[in-house]
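Dataset card, provenance and construction

Sequences and ligand SMILES were collected as paired inputs. For each pair, a complete structure of the chain with the small molecule in place was predicted and serialized as structure tokens. The example below shows a pair involving adenosine-5'-diphosphate. Curators did not alter the output after generation; any descriptive sentences attached to a record were derived from the structure itself.
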Amino acid sequence: MLYVKAPAKINLTLDVLHKRPDNYHEVEMIMTTVDLADRIGLKETEHGIHIESADRFVPNDSRNLAYQAAKLLKDTYHIKAGVVIKLDKQIPVAAGLAGGSSDAAATLKGLNKLWNLNLSLDELAELGTKIGSDVAFCVYGGTALAKGRGEIIQQLPTPPNCWVILAKPTIGVSTAEVYGAFDVNKAEHPNTQKMIEAIENKDYAAVCANLGNALESVTLSLYPEVAQIKEQMKKFGADAVLMSGSGPTVFGLVQQEARIPRIYNGLRGFCAEVYAVRLVGERSPLA
Ligand SMILES: C[C@@](CO)(OP(=O)(O)O)[C@H](O)COP(=O)(O)OP(=O)(O)OC[C@H]1O[C@@H](n2ccc(N)nc2=O)[C@H](O)[C@@H]1O
Ligand SMILES: Nc1ncnc2c1ncn2[C@@H]1O[C@H](COP(=O)(O)OP(=O)(O)O)[C@@H](O)[C@H]1O
């Protein structure tokens, strides 16, 4: 069995510029990986694509993004062999943390090795874009500015070191629903350039000051419990708090480790899924 790590991402910024003729939205977002990851196991079989997962929220058929990744490689490169894909899910599902996209990216990287395809990261990212807007970023990992519908990736340096507290309310959010309810005239736009400068200068206070997500107010109005978690996380002492992606996961940045127990335990009181992880922000190697 070949194992590949599939890390979650958070959005330090997410700006939505306008709706495009193809019905996607033009975005500008800064994403970075965190130390919460699914583990993907890949084993060659004679034929077919078989998904194994103990998580009841994860589809085990062609709706699974890891399945789609394997199918795309099989079809594009006329691979006869099949594969068993074991998904050990640690990233909450439909959370705004790109769990499915990261599984697809890890499957592309793992099968590239298993089937000796020798594709570069750029080639894998281009294939990944056919599966979803976030897959290209997940192929590279690290920290990046993503443009277009999310697939145009510009690498950024690693942000300053910190802890990330993730809290996911017990609702799953559909990305399509949130983009559908988005109104560009009502949106608050983050300052992407200032965030890039903050990262380049390794200026933690400036990273905190420039967090922003144009989709946040949409999700907050659909699901008031997300606003409540944001408030609690601030109250318990996080340095800065934001919703990730289309939500509903809220993340808080913290630099002082001693503050984590109060925030973590405080949130656990009314939120089942809480994680305290490190911000990673560095590119992952080719599997
Ligand atoms: C919002 C973000 C931010 O990182 O992530 P998540 O909240 O899903 O983690 C992404 O833009 C999500 O990317 P991803 O989840 O790959 O989306 P896709 O499968 O490509 O698209 C799902 C649906 O979202 C809408 N969509 C997605 C991306 C985009 N730039 N504009 C859109 O309007 C479209 O309606 C599309 O049909
Ligand atoms: N490997 C996978 N892991 C999780 N969800 C998946 C996977 N493949 C497909 N899905 C579907 O994708 C949807 C979005 O899940 P996910 O990628 O976790 O969320 P998000 O895009 O918000 O980060 C889920 O509702 C689930 O049905």
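Derived descriptions for this record:
The two ends are 13 Å apart (CA to CA).
The mean pLDDT is 96.
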